[in-house]
Amino acid sequence: MIDKYRKAKDYLDSFLNYELVSHFPYQHVIKLERMYLLLQHLKIPYQNLRVIHIAGTKGKGSTAHFLVSLLAASGFKTGLFTSPHFFDFRERIKIVKNSKSKVQSNLISKSDFIKIVERFQSDLKNLKISQELGQVTFFEIITAVAFKYFIEERVDFVVLETGLGGRLDSTNVVNPLISIITHIGYDHTDKLGKKLSEIANEKAGIIKKNIPLVSSSQRTAALRVIKNKSRAANAPLFLLKRDFEIKNIRFKQEYTLFNFKFNDFILRDLKINLKGEHPVENASLALATLFLLERKGLINKKIEYSRGLRVLDLPGRFEVVSKSPLIVLDIAHNLSSFTVLGNSLKRYFPRRKIILIFACAQDKDAKKMIKKIDYSYLILTGFSSPRSRNPEEIRRIIKDKNVCLTKNIAEALREAKNKYQDKGVIVISGSLFLVSEAKKLL
């Protein structure tokens, strides 16, 4: 079993993996036609899946998790596909369901993974793809594995998160029940475009003809693109702060309370175990989606709104992993999410001196990200990926000589603990890869 699993994983890893590359010609090498051809060759009837499709710059993961948690708490067996992962790539493919009045989340089993990959390996020997279409990628294969698994498990719904962008993403072959676009900001600008409107155009590529779209409130340039594409596709648009609202947010030290309103439908005193305003926004997108599914007659059970939100506990989202010393992990990795992180630190840990441990990928705007944190001491480091940016290069960019350079997260943590004083906080952020390595140590 162990040997078979290793061989199956090695086979997956043999495919071209753009997640390990910071810079590549996205518009030329990512092709949706290749995904259609792959699924056709593997004879996967993916269009039979009842999908909710999510794109956006920030909040995709938490919106997806809120949604599956709500569906599972209400009695639906739900497939979840997200990326990337913390420790085990099987985290990307989960089934979430209600068992004995408790929501349980299970990764695809090693035996199921082996069975599907061995079948793919046999079938793909005969796959012929033109040089113009290029090589099948790791993300395309893992998406196909997820589709196959969810079909075999006969899930009621699938919540599908895009990997990069939306228009060309391998998940964009589906015809969903509802599409969701979370907050759009500046990220992957070398691939998706320098302007916000260009990035929004890629994200809004998931909008489908006559399929309802739920969207976060957006900046003017992004909203204009979304409205135009929705109108062209005759896709009903439901917009936060216009069609549904969050009311009376109350920030507590360990949780957040809020009210939700969609037309005359009102939910009061909803509780989530995440801190800050943006998780509430993401929860509202999930709630609006459920309301629309129910209104369309696609849900025939009582929705457990309160319980579904309460059970969610997401790692790496402003996560306190130690109280002495106080250590916070956050997977913020772009300007938008660092703005949120900076605001959350001011709200929850005012007047505390911040020791920031930072590392990021080569394609990130390190200078602008770091400026969002009012730190007293900065420790630059790297993580175990070819995408990791050299700490010395970051120091040159930010033009601050009063920083500490370390080789890895273990060394960075030792330095942070040496500098730590009472009324301080150690913040580890900049990349999911960095946070993952920190979690392993902590």
What labels would you give this structure?
single chain, 442 residues, alpha/beta, UDP-N-acetylmuramoyl-L-alanine:D-glutamate ligase, Protein-Tyrosine Phosphatase, Chain A, six-stranded mixed beta sheet, 17 strands
What do we call the CATH homologous superfamily of the largest domain?
Mur-like, catalytic domain
- CATH 2nd-level architecture of the largest domain: 3-Layer(aba) Sandwich
Q: CATH topology of the largest domain, which one?
A: UDP-N-acetylmuramoyl-L-alanine:D-glutamate ligase
How many strands appear in the DSSP assignment?
17
Helix count from the secondary structure assignment:
16
CATH class of the largest domain: Alpha Beta
Beta-strand percentage range: 15-25%
The geometry reads as: globular
Structural domain count:
2
Radius of gyration: 22 Å
The strands making up the biggest β-sheet line up spatially as: 4-3-2-5-1-6-7-8
Distance between the termini: 30 Å
Helix content: 25-40%
Describe the fold and architecture.
By secondary structure, the protein is of the alpha/beta class. The model has no long low-confidence stretch (mean pLDDT 94). The chain is globular, with a radius of gyration of 22 Å. The strands form three sheets. An eight-stranded mixed beta sheet has the order 4-3-2-5-1-6-7-8, with helices on both faces. Strands 12-13-17-14-15-16 form a six-stranded mixed beta sheet, with helices on both faces. The protein has a three-stranded antiparallel beta sheet with strand order 9-10-11. It has helices at 2-13, 26-29, 32-41, 60-73, 110-123, 138-152, 189-192, 196-203, 220-232, 277-295, 305-310, 335-348, 366-371, 391-398, 409-419, 432-441, and strands spanning 51-55, 78-81, 93-99, 102-107, 157-161, 178-181, 213-215, 237-239, 244-251, 256-262, 265-272, 319-323, 326-330, 353-358, 377-380, 404-405, 424-429.
